[in-house]
Amino acid sequence: MKRQNIIGLALCGLIFFGGFLIKGSLSFYFNIASLMIVAGGSATAALLSFQLDRLKIVQRVVRSSYRGQLKSEAEIVDILIDLSIKSRMEGILSLQKDETETSILFLRRGLGCLVDNYEPQQIRDILNTEMYFFKMRREDSERVLRTIADFCPAFGIVGSVAGLIPMLAGIDDTGIILKTVPLALTSILYGLIFANFFFIPFAANLRERTNQELLLQKIIMEGIIAIECELNPTVLRTKLLSFLTPSDRKADLTPLSLIQERFHIVVDDQMDQDDHGSRPGPAVL
User: Fold this and answer.
1) Tens digit of pLDDT for each residue in 166-177?
2) What's 194's DSSP letter?
3) For a FRET experiment, which of 43, 67, 79, 160 has its CA 20 to 30 Å from that of 219?
4) pTM score, two decimals?
5) Cα–Cα separations (whole angstroms), residue 111 to 181, 228, 229, 270
């Protein structure tokens, strides 16, 4: 995670738990029986719903989504432009060493297709298939996280019912009521915290990460195919900049004066009038 995310997470966590401290001690909200019911019940339901290997994969995917930092779209464009220039100067086989040096697996896959001299349509089909199943795998992991998030509040209700039954059975005994009420209330609390503080944010982060990676993969695919077709690096750069947000490519916009010169546009002096007046169109010579 970025430093700003960690600082924000720490501050928000302090505010969240500080809310519990305002009216009392954290010990009021800790109940081992409730924790066992919610955590144990949710874990059991997850093991009954999914294979253990699938849960291990989800755990690794979530961990990598927070640990690893993706390259930006602008960095990917620069890498592809460098590869395009190198292929034109040294030949397509010169990219073979970049196939092993780059840390982006999808780019390595595309470079491998170039080195093996695949046709552009074959490269597009292969990389599109790679993107499709990558998206399917990520959506499957997200579905697992959201399913577990649904389990947690349900078992919070189970813990609440488990606390209400003995309370009603000992309605005349104050001691029994004092022992069972915390179980009933904290179980729901734990279920809601586990679902909304952990599993749902994990799933949302995974979806955002997947969308970002798919965008990078789309840029890489278009760049790889353009390199195979020996597209001019300047044209390739203009094409790939279309994937960036306007703020990221603002510096690459052609000045208006050059556009006017290229198309022989003469701007009338009346164009400088304020917006309240009439604004006649430019005269084209």
Assistant:
1) 777 666 666 666
2) I
3) 67
4) 0.76
5) 63, 10, 13, 55
